[in-house]
What we know:
Elements: H1 2-25, H2 36-39, E1 44-45, E2 52-54, E3 65-71, E4 74-79, E5 91-96, E6 99-106, E7 111-116, E8 125-129, E9 134-138, E10 141-144, E11 153-154, E12 158-161, H3 162-168, E13 173-175, E14 205-207
Amino acid sequence: MRLLRYFCIGVFLYAIVVGSVFVWRNLPRSYPRPSPSAILPVLTRGVTQPKLVTAATADIAADARVLGLVINGVPRAYLLDAMSGGPARHVVNDIIDGKAMTVIYCDITDRARVVEGDNEPLDVRCAGWIDDGMAIWFDDSVYAQESLKVPLTDAPYELTTWDLWQESHPDSDIYVGTDDPLGAPGSDGSVWQPPEGVADPRALWSGVPSDESAK
């Protein structure tokens, strides 16, 4: 009888341990990273008409994080909160002093990149997720955000807070987001279909991250 009691207690304790492990493994994580299949094949246009305000009129918290650029002596900042919250917000195709500048930011990984072109806005788009990072689309190809294979020139930038940027660049303007509920003018959030004959859109990924392409 005593042996049976010990057996039942053992089974009960085992069930508690197994149940606890199951619950823990299925708890939502506070910093989720989506899988490629969960994001693709959405291809979303970047913001091409950024809404700008001057430093003097900007109603922004002093400790708000910004990405700053200075092009030919012209300063401009981009509020990172405005580039967070969805794929339609992650890319801003801008023109600064006649120079095409594209700002790319992923709030999940907290990674930024700036690339430059000529005198017309670039058509860079958010293409979802690839190998633990955001993917971008340019010129009919999809690349990892940090890939060195992107056929564009990288530009230097500064990650700082709004008060420090404003102190250094009092004449700067700042991108504060778009009023479009989808995040980007003209963005319809449509589902992208791969070209005929390409069954798996990942076959177009020409910029898979590697050790040499990491920052």
